[in-house]
Design brief:
heterodimer, A: mainly alpha, two-stranded antiparallel ribbon, B: alpha/beta, 6-stranded mixed sheet
Chain lengths: 474, 560
């Protein structure tokens, strides 16, 4: 254990009055060394001494939340920010809608809030762990920088959640914060809580798919929590959303650039054989979409859920853009859900509150469909006849009411043997991963890109694409 | 919905391994593996899914069968490792949706049966050298932790997530009613202030703290869990102990398939019949024949060879089934008349021979089984009148182990006629204890220790007058009074409030001190049953009623 005494307030940019909060300061002081130890063990491997052109949030002002400079990652200043509020916050949904929001954890909701925060918090370090080796195969310095930006911000999101645990949950919160650094993605002994965060993410196609699909779950969870009646959670997650947008940008444009490049290679090769041209063929891209989209769907939880109903009823978690709904109690209404009954697909009406996970999943699926349309436009513009699709949300599920049944990507019920016979056509296979690893050689020269991906349209923060986003020779 | 369980076909309690839907049993020498893998679609009643290894009565009927068969059919087993066949979930406890939609009576019967099953596990650990260890390879919540608590040792997977918990109070507004609270403080000796914290912390406790608070006996990392648990199982299996003698050849429990009549279930040695109009039932038990007695007097090997056809085993299995039938499928029967038929001298001869062989493992199992069935009788919430009169051509046979029926009953009417005789055997003196440890004879004569002392060691038969003088008889009637007096007593009893009678009988039957088991069936169960009918649990806005529904519960904050 490293022992450090630091001037926390200059080290940790914040707008939570850290310097005056003795209790919080003490908690963070004892947590910080463990965090740094975790970052050194489980954060990006080998690039600790390289300056990276990173965005750091130093305040919540419009010019302060995105401060760019070259920083070595261990020196990154992980801060704690709450979105400012004007006027009195209120509870936004459920039975108590309109009443003043909570500024402390109400004892009645301690367990539910703790569960919500710990589950969200656990995903943040998990993705850093999953991506720790990717720097070694980065297709460009631009992409490497984006990877590291995502990593440090996921680290900051862990800070944001740990702040809530330290500040509002007493000793139990401190214990949970410590546990967050003990669990490890994919570790057989101490796995991360949610399935998708234990899946290997060992090449860049998975990285882009992960930031596209899995981080997008994060966006919707954070958006739902930004309508929480627990004011500190609401304000923290609102600020996290501003950073999360970049992660989604990395994923969505990364996939788009691969698709664009594959379409180019398809034309370049006389037989249209993308692999022979060293690229990633569309079937493999489709299998990747199928794999990560469906694992990410699981993260929303059960289709019929008493927890979801409780969280909404108590005002702890709203819907996506709850403020755009006219009615915030959602009592008496129902949600029509496709269900498997007696071996057939039918429909069932469930109380809307119990279907809140599915309501959030709907918003997410709509967003993913938008991205797919964009990628297909890229294909169209490139003159490729291929079109990519999102699989049915029933396909390849490990949680919820569809998990015990087999479906094809169109959502038709199948028997298990037919599913297994077709699995390699639908989902990533070990051979796919081998192929991807074989073509993923690092490209560290500024402005150059790996053969399998197109350059971006523009650089970061007005810098050109050729900019030295990571100074590897310093 | 509320009366759904009663409109369904009657529940049958007999099962066998070929019919299990929820449990997997495997054997490796002295170690048995018992895996809970509940079939979500296998609920006993429609309307709920048994998700996350949650259980209903059907799951527990199979568990009770497993526990019983392990004792009789697998005497080579020393350790039973109880784990889950479902990844990351050990057992989520009783199915809440099932409880939410059940009638009060169904809930009470369900809890009673599950409690009895858990006591059977402890009984097997204590008296059959079959030690249960819980290998909680995942979350162990509510009834799931209570199931683990019934094991002698509990091990929890340490994966940063798996916890043991009793979330009933904070989440459902009811108690952990399967012995959880009692075993926490009485059996595991968890400090009561910590038990208070634990029982109100919905998420429970995991890892080191669970161990420090003695909620579990050990925690092992996930990758080593199986290996460490099996190491512990092997150590227990290898520990030298003095086993009861007798060839450790299992005795298969064949079906007891009764013949079903319109108003009766006819077994080989037992008859259950009922009169819905009069709200009474009768259980008639026939004593051992001369041939049955010949088997037991021939000694250990002959008894072992008789297997499940042995009178003492067969008759009490039948009696057990009859009691369970009454409890679950005949809710409107308030009074049960207990009659016996046979030769009381043969019963005494039988008992003497069985007692002489009691060191043989199989005889030990037979006696323990008889004791459990009699405890089931003690704990049955029906009025019991034992009637010692002439049945057809036969004489009543209230002697020895069958006298226990009269001593378990709330009243014992005995016909005063020279041919009617009762008698004591060695089995009346502690071999068949009640759940709080007293013999029924000691409980009956709790306030008259002199009479009790006078009876201890007394063998042979006595007539009605002597039995009355000895304090064994409630009402002695001659042939002239018998018919009218018993008719009036039966009718009067049948007219009283069933709730008041249940409470009264449960109080009067268990005189003397309490122990852990009796506290579970008295204190814990009584409070639970009260909570079950309170609006805060089962009213339209109660926590149990609304669990999983979109509405939130509302409590009446007044303490009662």
């Amino acid at each position: 254990m490293v022992s450090t005494t630091v001037d926390l307030n200059s080290k940790i940019p914040n707008n939570v009055g850290l310097s005056d909060d003795v209790k919080l300061k003490r908690a963070l002081e004892s947590w910080l060394p463990s965090y740094l130890e975790w970052w050194n063990d489980m954060g990006p491997s080998d690039f600790a001494d390289k300056p990276v052109f990173l965005r750091t949030a130093v305040s919540v002002d419009s010019d302060g939340w995105a401060h760019y400079e070259h920083v070595k990652m261990p020196d990154y200043r992980w801060g704690i920010f709450l979105n400012p509020r004007e006027g009195e916050s209120t509870i936004r949904c459920g039975d108590e809608v309109g009443k003043p929001a909570w500024h402390e954890v109400p004892g009645e909701h301690r367990n539910a809030l703790r569960r919500i925060i710990v589950t969200q918090a656990d995903t943040e370090p998990a993705s850093v762990e999953q991506q720790r080796l990717l720097g070694h195969t980065a297709p460009s310095l631009y992409d490497m920088r984006n990877l590291f930006q995502v990593n440090v911000e996921e680290g900051r999101h862990l800070w944001a959640m740990v702040y809530l645990l330290h500040k509002y949950f007493g000793r139990d919160g401190r214990d949970e914060a410590e546990e967050l650094l003990q669990r490890r993605s994919g570790d057989p002994d101490k796995p991360r809580i949610l399935g998708a965060f234990n899946q290997p993410c060992d090449h860049w196609l998975s990285f882009f798919a992960f930031t596209m699909f899995t981080d997008r779950d994060g966006k919707y969870q954070l958006a739902a929590l930004s309508h929480s009646g627990f004011d500190p959670l609401s304000r923290t997650t609102e600020f996290m959303l501003t950073e999360e947008a970049h992660h989604l940008f990395v994923g969505e444009t990364g996939m788009d650039r691969i698709i664009k490049r594959s379409a180019e290679l398809e034309k370049l090769d006389p037989d249209g054989d993308i692999r022979r041209a060293g690229g990633i063929d569309f079937d493999l891209i489709q299998r990747t979409i199928n794999y990560w989209f469906t694992y990410s769907l699981d993260l929303f939880g059960g289709e019929i859920s008493s927890n979801a109903a409780d969280f909404f009823a108590t005002g702890l978690k709203g819907r996506y853009r709850e403020d755009r709904y006219e009615e915030h109690k959602a009592m008496g209404a129902t949600y029509r859900l496709p269900v498997v009954e007696n071996g057939h697909l039918g429909e069932r009406d469930v109380p809307l509150r119990n279907a809140m996970n599915e309501v959030l999943r709907d918003s997410y699926v709509t967003d993913c469909e938008r991205a797919l349309r964009k990628w297909n436009r890229t294909l169209e513009e490139s003159g490729s006849p291929t079109r990519l699709t999102l699989p049915s949300r029933r396909f390849h599920r490990h949680q919820g009411i569809y998990a015990d049944h087999c479906f094809d990507p169109q959502g038709n019920l199948l028997d298990r043997s037919r599913f297994e016979a077709n699995q390699r056509n639908w989902l990533l296979t070990p051979a796919d991963n081998e192929y991807l690893l074989s073509i993923m050689k690092p490209v560290y020269e500024p402005g150059k890109f790996a053969n399998w991906i197109a350059p971006p349209n523009k650089g970061i923060e007005g810098r050109p694409v050729e900019f030295e986003y990571v100074r590897l020779n310093d | 919905m509320d009366s759904a369980p009663q409109q369904q076909p009657p529940v049958e309690f007999e099962t066998d391994p070929s019919r299990y839907r929820h449990w997997q049993v495997s054997f490796d020498g002295p170690i048995a593996r018992l895996k809970m893998a509940v079939d979500p679609a296998g609920g006993l009643r429609p309307g709920y899914e048994l998700k996350l290894n949650s259980y209903d009565l059907g799951v527990d009927i199979e568990l009770a069968d497993v526990v019983r068969r392990l004792r009789f059919e697998h005497p080579e087993v020393r350790v039973v490792v109880l784990s889950s066949g479902t990844d990351n979930v050990f057992c989520a406890g009783a199915n809440i949706h099932m409880l939410g939609m059940s009638t009060h009576a169904w809930k009470v019967n369900f809890c009673k049966f599950t409690n009895e099953t858990r006591c059977e596990m402890e009984d097997a650990t204590a008296f059959s050298d079959q030690i249960y260890i819980a290998a909680a390879n995942g979350t162990c919540a509510g009834g799931g932790y209570e199931l683990a608590l019934a094991c002698k040792e509990i091990y929890l997977q340490d994966d940063g997530n798996s916890a043991v918990s009793l979330p009933e109070v904070p989440l459902l507004g009811v108690l952990p009613g399967t012995g959880g609270l009692t075993r926490l403080v009485d059996k595991r000796k968890v400090r009561r202030d910590r038990a208070d914290v634990f029982s109100t912390t919905a998420e429970g406790m995991r890892g080191k703290r669970a161990k420090d608070w003695n909620l579990v006996d050990g925690v092992f990392a996930r990758s080593k869990f199986e290996q460490e648990v099996m190491k512990r199982a092997q150590a227990i299996a290898a520990a030298p102990i003095k086993l009861l003698p007798g060839e450790r050849r299992g005795v298969t429990l064949g079906p007891i398939t009764p013949e079903l009549a319109a108003h009766a279930r006819l077994y080989r040695h037992v008859e259950l019949s009922w009169d819905r109009e009069a709200r009474t039932a009768q259980i008639l038990v026939r004593g051992p024949s001369a041939a049955d007695v010949a088997v037991v007097t021939a000694g250990d090997e002959a008894i072992h060879a008789a297997g499940d056809q042995l009178w003492a085993l067969r008759a009490f299995r039948e009696l057990d089934d009859a009691l369970l039938q009454l409890r679950t499928n005949h809710l409107d029967i308030g009074l049960v008349l207990l009659r016996t038929e046979g030769d009381p001298a043969q019963v005494l001869a039988h008992d003497a021979a069985l007692a002489a062989s009691r060191e043989h493992w199989f005889v030990n199992e037979v006696l323990r089984h008889m004791a459990r069935v009699l405890r089931r009788l003690d704990l049955t919430s029906r009025s019991f009148f034992a009637l010692g009169d002439v049945v057809g051509n036969g004489m009543p046979a209230f002697a020895g182990c069958l006298l226990e029926l009269a001593l378990a009953a709330d009243r014992f009417y005995l016909l005063d006629e020279p041919a009617v005789q009762v008698g004591l055997s060695a089995l009346n003196e502690g071999a068949l204890p009640m759940s709080h440890g007293l013999s029924r004879l000691a409980a009956r004569l709790y306030g008259e220790p002199d009479k009790f002392e006078a009876l201890v060691g007394q063998r042979g038969l006595m007539d009605a007058e002597a039995a009355d003088d000895a304090g064994l008889v409630t009402v002695r009637l001659d042939g002239i009074d018998w018919a009218d007096d018993t008719r009036m007593a039966i009718e009067e009893r049948s007219s009283l409030s069933p709730d008041a009678l249940t409470g009264m009988e449960a109080n009067l039957r268990f005189v003397g001190h309490e122990n852990e088991t009796s506290k579970i069936f008295a204190r814990l169960t009584a409070w639970q049953n009260w909570i079950f009918i309170r609006p805060n649990a089962t009213g339209p806005e109660g926590a149990l009623s609304l669990y999983g529904k979109p509405q939130r519960p509302h409590f009446d904050w007044n303490r009662v």
